[in-house]
Amino acid sequence: MLDEPLNAIERLIEPGRVSRRVYTDPEVFELEMQRVFGRSWLFVGHDSQIPNSGDFLTTELGRQPVIMIRHYDDTVRVLLNRCTHRGAKVLNEPTGNAPRMSCLYHGWTFSSDGALVGVPEDDGCTASFDRKDFGLASVPRLETYRGFVFASLAATGISLEEHLGGMKANIDDMVDRAPEGKLALDVGVHRYIFPGNWKLQVENVLDSYHVPFGHASTVNKEGDQFSRRDGDEKGAKVIEKDKTSEDWKIRRSYDMGHGHGWTSNTKLDDGKRSSAVYSAYVDALTEKLGEKRAAEVLKPKFHNSLLYPNVSIMGLNIHVRVIKPIAVNLTEVNVYPIRLVGASKEMNAANIRLLNVTHSAASFVQSDDAESFTRVQSGLRSQLTEWVDISRGMGTEDHDQDVNAPRGKATDELVVRGQYRAWLDYMREAV
Amino acid sequence: MTVSGMDSAKQAAALAFAPNDIEIFLHHEARLLDERRFRDWMELFTNDGIYWVPAVQGQKSPLNHVSLFYDDRTHMKTRIARLEHPMIHVQTPPSRTVHQIGRAMMEETGDKGGEYMVSSSVIMIEYRLDNQRLFGGQQYHRLRREGTGFRIAHKRVDLVNCDGPFGPMAVPI
Fold it and tell me: d(Cα B22, Cα A33) in Å, to the nearest integer?
């Protein structure tokens, strides 16, 4: 297919359907790594993960190993985790503190801004060797929004501001829930892998259609899902009279451009939510924000948000989810529960406990999603059927004036079509 | 089974039961899991019992850090209702498991309100749909004497790969 890459890519996407090869073809995956992950703004981490000078985490952008580290001037740096000498990964641990980073192989040492500060036996270097040419490379572009650190591996492109667009409001909505106006991703991470394409998880985070079926085992005989939030009497009404409930279907999804999207909040009986822990949280928030704003914040507007291509922020059981492609048919997902800074220990503990049962590898919810992704990847081996259907609700979307974006039913596939529009924009242009 | 740092005479005097009773109990628990008798397994726990599988080595608290499992009775009931649900896709078909429990040691004896801390090693082989996985680690049971038997007040399993990435884990270890 690479003989005519431009035409070939265009042929993979049609109105309301995509070719199975976007999930199964290793050549498509290689192109995605160059053209989507090699170009887009990607979520790297949150600055709360590296609070002190020299604190670092290692991760991947696409498949490329990087280091996010706090320099001694308190700025966050994102460096390629690759020794400039012979190529070894310099930092090998997931997290730690390393004001000086030494390569294990020949001892080259780098400062936390990437500068090469030590070369053993440097009398062997050539006369023209200049340490300045051998610092750990920084990612070409790095920007932060309210603690969320984004990088782009491309030197040019739209700003993060333009990339996020209306999605900034979703980040704001989450940050405002913290009485001190700060989030922290410092309570650990759920790591799970599935033998399927990365886009299966990306498409799933805004998919409200699958819940009564894919997650049937989380719904009791009355059609209610298990209770998720502290203080709730019961969970969301998912099924009613053997059909998807009206409460569930009432949600809407929004196609926010650049592949981003969000779904509106799950209908829960907020008036009945009550517990000592929740009341203390309401009081703390009211004191900080005033009654009016606190009341708005306490009615979160979104259930889930997707910042295409690699991160989602969930508003119900609050967490940040990072999607890491490993191969065309292998993906790792990292779920970081959000700690609301200024909320009580008990409030944050309740969310941690909730995420254990919703999104750990051993959870009630995510394990069935991983099973769905696995079966899709297996089913798509079927070569005689080329197309995957994403046409639900096509032509029924309207334009939401307040959000200024196309809006559809959350049980439709408007946002998936938005993702493939963005995908094609990235993929059709050579890097 | 032996008691850490205690000779056998003292051990016999300190316990109101044969040390082997505890090993038999651990084997019984493992067998209930392998036979998928999850409800009977839950009933081994005291009403305030906890089942905990930490997500990092040496995890100190389940309340300020994520865990793979941290189930009280309420969570256990939801988990088991789901395991019994006909539409639990991740168990269609179900996992088959076999546990191997070894090296059981009593860490502390009596005097703790009739509770006993027991450590052992655990290996669980799980097979489902052409895929076999191996889980292994240390487990720590805090057992409460009840009548002539025991109930589990607290069970902690420290997997050697607890901070690694996992495929779905539907059944308890």
Answer: 55
